[in-house]
Amino acid sequence: MITSSQLLLKRSFDLLLAILLLPILIVPILILVLLSTFDTKQFGLFAQIRVGQHGKLFRILKIRTLKKEPHHLGSLHLSATRFGAFLRKHKFDELPQLFNVLFGQMSFVGPRPDVQGFADVLQGEDRVILLVKPGITGPATLKYKNEDLILSQQDNPEMYNRTIIWPDKVQINKKYVMDYSFYLDLQHIIKSIYQ
């Protein structure tokens, strides 16, 4: 299982890498936020509440990819713009999470941060997942890199996610925490870049 010294090394690496990447990525992030603002007609940066380390809630930062459109029933619904779909496909919408790493809310590698109703309600030994900060990438993220496509092909996407994908992610993330090594973190980062 991951130790306190490994957690300290992990955080030190995250902080160093975030500081090194910030000067390189700050301009592209600002440009994408500006383009998204024009594209969606709303401010291009937005925050969502997610479950973090030890079940603590935090605001994850993303570039906006959805716009509000009139629904045929008279209400509004959200749909991805063409530019937004491009950002989501290449994960560029997640670049602002560099600041979440910098602020100590996330790690470069770990379980993806979930909305309430998933990680925060884990029971028993499954709660070991909450020992680590959620990550921008990780073993479960790599396995389910086409999760949106998989869910779009299901008759009941929400049920499929809760009964098939989520339990599998829990097992993958438990193994990640139980068998943690810094070397594997580096492997996950490299795989994420070249996938």
Q: Main sheet?
A: 2 strands, antiparallel
Q: How many independent structural domains?
A: 1
- What's the Cα radius of gyration? 17 Å
Give the class from helix and strand content and strand pairing. alpha+beta
How much β-strand is present in the residues? 15-25%
What is the chains' assembly state?
Answer: single chain
Q: Roughly how much helix do the residues carry, as a percent range?
A: 40-55%
* Amino- and carboxy-terminal Cα gap: 28 Å
SSE order: HEEEEHHEEHHHH
Query: What is the tally of beta strands?
Result: 6
Low-confidence runs: none
Q: Order of strands across the biggest sheet? A: 1-2
Shape descriptor reads globular
Count helical runs: 7
Mean of all residue-level pLDDT scores: 93
Describe the protein in words.
The chain is an alpha+beta fold and 195 residues long. It has one domain (4-194). The protein contains seven helices and six strands, in the order αββββααββαααα. The chain has helices spanning 4-40, 82-89, 97-102, 139-143, 147-152, 157-178, 182-194, and strands at 45-51, 57-63, 66-70, 76-80, 107-109, 135-137. The strands form three sheets. It has a two-stranded antiparallel sheet. A two-stranded antiparallel ribbon has the order 3-4. A two-stranded parallel ribbon has the order 5-6. The chain is globular, with a radius of gyration of 17 Å. The protein starts with a helix and ends with a helix. The model has no long low-confidence stretch (mean pLDDT 93).
